[in-house]
Amino acid sequence: MTGIFFGSTMGTTEAVAADIAKQLGVADADVHNVADTPAGEVQKYDLLVLGSSTWGAGELQDDWYGFLDQLKAQDLSGKKVALFGCGDSGSYPDTFCDAVGLIYDGLQQSGCTFVGAYAPEGYDETGSLVCRGGKFVGLAVDESAPDKTDRRVAAWCEQIKNE
Length: 163
Ligand SMILES: Cc1cc2nc3c(=O)[nH]c(=O)nc-3n(C[C@H](O)[C@H](O)[C@H](O)COP(=O)(O)O)c2cc1C
Prior knowledge:
This is Flavodoxin. Pfam families: Flavodoxin_1. GO terms for molecular function: electron transfer activity; FMN binding. Keywords: Electron transport, Flavoprotein, FMN, Nitrogen fixation, Transport. The protein starts with a strand and ends with a helix. By secondary structure, the chain is an alpha/beta fold. It has one domain: Rossmann fold (3-Layer(aba) Sandwich), CATH 3.40.50.360. It is built from four helices and nine strands. β1 (2-7), α1 (12-24) and β2 (31-33) form a beta-alpha-beta unit. The relative contact order is 0.18. α1 packs across α4. 27% of the residues lie in helices and 24% in strands. The protein has helices at residues 12-24, 64-72, 98-106, 149-161, and strands at 2-7, 31-33, 47-55, 59-60, 80-87, 113-115, 131-132, 135-136, 139-142. The radius of gyration is 14 Å and the shape is globular. It binds flavin mononucleotide. Flavin mononucleotide binds next to α1, β3 and β5.
C-alpha cells in the first residue's frame, strides 16, 4: 500500500502530489499533508512517497521540519521511500530542489530503501543537494521548465511502479 506525504506552502507540491496519486492509483485518504499528520501514519504503508518544496536558500518547506524530526524516530525497515520536490532552477540554481536531498540525508539511518533515482537528462542544474553521484535522488519538478513537468511526473511514476 502506498502513502503520499507532502509539505506545500503555495500549493505547487500539493498539486504534484495529487497528480502522482492519480498516476499511482493512490486514494485521497492516503494523501497526507505533513502539516497536520503524525509521522506514525507512515507505518500503514510499505511505499512512502515523500514530497517537499524548497524554500529560503535550500531549506525544507516549513511543515517538514517537525515531520522529518518525527520521521527520523520511526523504524522504516522494509519500506520503500520515493522522494519528490518542487523548486525553481532559474532563480535558485545552486539550491535547486535541495529539500529532496535534505530528506534523503535525514532518512539514511531509518532502514528504508530509496527508489525513484534517475539520471537528470534535460535539466540545466545538477549541482545541488538533489543530485548525488550523477543521479537525482528523487523527482525534481522545476518551475522554470513547466512544459516538462507532466512528462517528468509520468515517467517517474512509471519508474516507481516498476521498482
Ligand atoms: C522565497 C523563496 C525561496 C525559494 N527558495 C528556493 C530554493 O532554494 N531552491 C529551489 O529550488 N526553489 C526555491 N524556491 C521556489 C519554490 O520551491 C517553488 O516556487 C515551489 O514550486 C513552491 O512549492 P509549494 O507551493 O508547494 O511550496 C523558492 C521560492 C521562494 C518564493
